[in-house]
Amino acid sequence: MARDLSLGRRTFFAAAAGVTAAAAVPGVARAAGRSSSRARVAEPPIDATDAWAARTPSGEISTLNYTPSMIIVHHTVSENSNDFSRAQAHAHSKWVQDLHMDGNGWVDTGYNFLVSRGGFITEGRHRSLATLRGGSSFVFGAHTSGQNDVGIGIANEGAYHDGATPPAAQWDALVQLCAHAASQYTIDPQEIYGHMDFGNTQCPGIFHDMLPQLRDEVAALLG
């Protein structure tokens, strides 16, 4: 299926003054309020939970009234679909939510955001998008044991532990989302990690090897 090219994914960033920054230390919430000359990276298109008809959470969604100190990258170990459509991105988000709620017994999707192989970004756990836009709080997820109170989780559709590489659209969207989150929360690009940095897991597969590139590309957008 042809990919929707109307999103203009490469036009999401614009410079602005007055963005705050703070030194990030893994596992420790940052103190806010330091000035920075970094560019503000505009929000890429993100389909909220209502756009993909997410289920209502089965319990309370907790909001942490401070900013995260890191971004943690995952893969969902789903099929490496060649359907790059928005409809597939929504179907994948529903699959993940069902797995997490029905299989894991969680109140909602564990990840804060998901990036499809076609480059479409969806909100995972409810209220993650609203808090990201606010820039002063974030939603407590269920993606990385011991780190859910200090990091936001971004999961990529597909399985990348057997040598597969992400499609260009997925990679570009991941870079834009990470750069926007880093801008909103003043997270240093060096504080982008993979799930395996915090546990015995193969997640996020090849994305872990690509973390230096991801950090560099995010840093370039931040200026």
Automatic annotation (TrEMBL):
Residues 44-199 form the Peptidoglycan recognition protein family domain. SUPFAM superfamilies: N-acetylmuramoyl-L-alanine amidase-like. GO terms for molecular function: N-acetylmuramoyl-L-alanine amidase activity; zinc ion binding. Gene3D superfamilies: Peptidoglycan recognition protein-like (3.40.80.10). Residues 56-205 form the N-acetylmuramoyl-L-alanine amidase domain. SMART domains: Ami_2, PGRP. It comes from the Bacteria. InterPro entries: Amidase/PGRP_sf, Amidase_domain, PGRP, PGRP_domain_met/bac, TAT_signal. Pfam families: Amidase_2 (PF01510). GO terms for biological process: peptidoglycan catabolic process. Belongs to the N-acetylmuramoyl-L-alanine amidase 2 family. This is N-acetylmuramoyl-L-alanine amidase.
